[in-house]
Amino acid sequence: MVIQHSSRGRQRGTLLFEVVMAMTILIIAVFPLGFSLHTDAKLFRLTYQRAVAMEIVDGEIEILAAGGWRDLPEGSRPYAVHANAATNLPPGQFTVTRAGRQIQLRWAAAKKSGIGPIIREVTVK
To answer: How many of the other CB atoms lie within 10 Å of CB of 52?
Structure first.
């Protein structure tokens, strides 16, 4: 029996090898890029949520400093905000504390989220 080697078989083998190498290169390049995009999206989301929390706390502390503090009893209690942007925050709670003329407004996430608490204090006159 005579085995004939065809150049067509070698071409197929070479083509298959090139396809496998191209897929390997693509996987090596795409996986880190995909992971990087996922990490960046998470960082952008946390940065956005922190900015929203800071804006809400800053706005509410200004309202309290402008005279809203007079309606607050002494001590610490949950504080209801009416900002629609609060729906973009992770689950958490706003807390206001009044000690004399010292007012503190704080937002903290219910679970560790990477944002950290946002605290503003003001002494009213």
So the answer is: 19
Domain locations in the chain as residue ranges: 9-123
DSSP 57-85: HHHHHHHHHTTGGGGPPSEEEE-----GG
Distance CA 85, CA 8 (A): 65
Q: What is the CATH number of domain 9-123?
A: 3.30.1300
Residue 34: in which H helix or E strand, if any?
helix 7-65
Instruction: Collect all residues with Cβ–Cβ distance below 8 Å to 77 and sequence separation of at least 6.
Output: 95, 96, 97
For 112, the token pair is 């560790």
pLDDT 10s digits, 6-46: 566 677 788 889 999 999 998 888 888 888 999 999 999 99
pTM equals 0.74
Sign of dihedral through CA atoms 81, 89, 115, 91? positive
Structure-block tokens of residue 28? 């090596």
Could you tell me how far CA 30 lies from the centroid of its own chain? 23
Measured CA to CA, the distance from residue 94 to residue 82 in angstroms comes to 11
Place of tokens 């004939």: 4
